[in-house]
Amino acid sequence: MNDVVQKPIRIVILGGGFAGVYTARYLTRLLGRRRDVEVELLSEENYFVFQPLLPEVAAGGIAATHVVNPIRELVPKVRFRCCSVAAIDFERRQVMVSQGAGLELVPVAYDHLVFCLGKVTHFASMPGVAEHALAMKDLADAFRLRNHVLRCLELADIEPDLEAKRALLHFVVAGGGFSGVETIGELAELVTRSLAYFPRIDPKEVRFSLVHAQARILPEMPESLSLAARQILERRGVDMVLGARVRAASPSAMYLHDGRALATRTFVCTVGTAPNPIVEGALAQGGFIQAQHNGRAISAFATERTLECAGRPGYWAVGDCAGIPSPTGQGLCPPTAQFAIREAKTCARNLIAAIDGTPKSPFAFRALGILASLGQRSAVAEMFGIRLTGFLAWFAWRTVYLAKLPGWVRRLRVALDWTLDLFFPRDITQLQVFQHQHLHVHHYEPGEAIVQQGQLGRELYLILKGEVEVSANGGGKRVRLGAREVFGERAVLEDTRRNATVCATQAADVLVLSRSDFHAMVKNLPVLSDYFAELLRARHPDAMPAGPAALDHLPPTPGMAPAELRPS
Amino acid sequence: MNDVVQKPIRIVILGGGFAGVYTARYLTRLLGRRRDVEVELLSEENYFVFQPLLPEVAAGGIAATHVVNPIRELVPKVRFRCCSVAAIDFERRQVMVSQGAGLELVPVAYDHLVFCLGKVTHFASMPGVAEHALAMKDLADAFRLRNHVLRCLELADIEPDLEAKRALLHFVVAGGGFSGVETIGELAELVTRSLAYFPRIDPKEVRFSLVHAQARILPEMPESLSLAARQILERRGVDMVLGARVRAASPSAMYLHDGRALATRTFVCTVGTAPNPIVEGALAQGGFIQAQHNGRAISAFATERTLECAGRPGYWAVGDCAGIPSPTGQGLCPPTAQFAIREAKTCARNLIAAIDGTPKSPFAFRALGILASLGQRSAVAEMFGIRLTGFLAWFAWRTVYLAKLPGWVRRLRVALDWTLDLFFPRDITQLQVFQHQHLHVHHYEPGEAIVQQGQLGRELYLILKGEVEVSANGGGKRVRLGAREVFGERAVLEDTRRNATVCATQAADVLVLSRSDFHAMVKNLPVLSDYFAELLRARHPDAMPAGPAALDHLPPTPGMAPAELRPS
User: Does pLDDT of A560 surpass 70?
Assistant: First the structure.
């Protein structure tokens, strides 16, 4: 072995979605046993999610683990790194990543860098939506939604207050695109099929609403199919709230721009995405050309037809973050999984061509069809120019997705899930696998009650933004509190009922502190302890002995609060 | 319909484990179409967990949802209430429950009350164990353990530091009873079978340790089987740490009473249980007689052989919380699922007898056998006096459990899981479905480093207990900090590396605050803002402009910290 060992050429792929995983798959296929090229894939999760089936996971038709594939299993010959990208050092050609506890940034060197990054959820323009809406973007979302819906059914079954029960049984989805339409269809199926187990819920009490900004749902589909989808959903009891845009959300309602409010405890928001911050960063600093769509700059890399970033050899873009000239000559390729997979194939071929110095080929592909499932064995589809609705479309939809699902084990498992689902009742297990979340922020719209006099209370509230009004016994003296002020402080001192009602008078964000968190902090930060002792003495002179020592009377930290006396 | 409508007699069952669910099942079977008796079951979760299979869920051999059954599905004719028990009002014969947001306590009236409550996990006597060990008690534990182990493999695969890698690949289980032994066996199988996907992990780097207080594992089993189990596990590379008791745990190690420390990032603790608080409360206030075991009072109700609580007609106890005279005449019935199911049958029969005024019958049952699975198609078992080890025992184990699993759908699904598991690789998907946990407490033993100079830092620490020492540049001035003092405060102000190392000098509990939590609090509680501005000015006079205004320079709340720049 006297040969000089040549350092292999390194291709680094950012992102583990359709674009990233398929680029890696095609690359390993093309490379075979070549050892002069090394491929490394970077992703925050160790699995690939088959996103089109997420609504069905949310509805319990398929087990969560069956629509995900470990990336290592899909691309066993590729190096895989589970990490977050902190920055890209374009000069030294290395990606700086944070892995594990993130105590060091680790450099990952590249010769070719392939951007395969998707958009991220972004609710900031709609107050309260980040805090109170559920998204439908990744596996965790689907998992959470399913458990949340089953929790609502459990609570509705034993809720004596009719108004509260109605909100528990109203399921609202915003967004009439594929994700929103499939989610409301699947939710309706889950709830309808589960009702048999909840004898104290009348099916007439259940409502579904689909909120959509435009006049017709599924705008990407031909008009006749949009209409068919709408009719199928309406026949199943879904209210169409069209031409309406989401303005805000609170713990008990969602608000529209036209002033309407829908009282609900389940609000799924499929609208509101933002550019990926890594793409934004690269566009700002990396000397890339930003893509244009209908004359407007969008958050994507302008690429050649070869998928190489325009003017930046060695950098490539595939999928949602790529502005690829459409093979039809008009506009850009759409950001769909169908296109991402085909783009990945072209990108892999051209990467090898670039390395070997052979000619590259342009991206060429036309969409094969378009499908949307509506739940309950119904769908709408257009394939090879043929339009289908109802059961036939649903059958086509299942067949296509089953064929596309990577890996035989998953395919088999999903097929089994589907088969069992035809014969057996839907699973209503509400999995409580989430750890209790501590500090969190709630948003309230004007007029909403935050606490009600007489209710049991175990949280302290700190106003971050807006204004609230405190009133007792339905009238009398009213006190207004603003940003940086505290209320509900008695609740963290004793098992007590609220001695006043607090309503938002302006849109308000409040930080909610549980009793145990409050105690941990107050008992240990002397400055906080003094502050609260002072506050309590001023507000409740009768309830507390004077001075900072007052807080020494607090029960021990996590406390044996009633909520913790639980049957196992 | 001129008959006076008689109010039905109400039987309320507390707890949704084997005892509670089987009592409800036998009751509905015996009651048939009778409408003069109403049964209501109260449980915190809406599902029943088949606990004996939890270690296999943790190891990914069975999907989490396949070992749980919705209680509503198991006992469709019984009223079900998903709630926590806050108190029992023995005088008015009603259970006070907290349901939903817990804003009101709801009374649930009973004529007969059946206690079917299990023990609860209790780690308080071992510092740091509650914070850093994983339990193996419910579904959430199994789910978390599986994802945690896969996370460790992902991190170990890319960890450059050898010592850190070794800790990531050391899996420690405490407790040599059924739960502990089955967990280490299943963990060994999961890790061993997953290694093929992690090319940078050498199988020789992986270690498993089983810590047990006594000299032999599985003390409930005949000695020859204990020995066989030990030999099988040792052959598979499990280190036996016998005669050793758990003293404490920290983020990077577990400590034994004999002074030894095992460096590990995965510590599963199957020892440490406490009486159920509801049982304790009832024993203290309800006029019940406490059961005695070997001359000591235990946390269980002394019952007649009919399962009625001694001296308290109308109150019954089944399962772990019942001290039932053993049919053999010696001691009490053991707290196993096998006994709980048989006790439930007797209890249901006697409840009906009590209502109808017919004679009650005493509990009579002898254990059929005893089994423990060791993973990798191996087990130890004694059934009807015959002792089995290895594959045959494992086959018997599977058959018995499959037959006992309630419901045909689950049985089918578990059978499919087992079949697929024989032919396909183990699923290594690490599900990130947990929301990020904010405020949490870490425990450190003397000598352990909490932060290291030069590392990136994004958390602030508040000492709750104990003492730490701050030192910079490997020597020079050392500062000691104690309870109620703060360190790491620079990290929440800027993306910075730690400018000092902080080690625990005494066992220390510290509250860890993430940057975004810190900002939310400090920006809104003026008193905190002043306090930290003061602290920073005193400690870092060069780094900050003077005065409380200093904190206005903080980046906006959730911040675009590197960790948040993530590929999707």
Answer: no
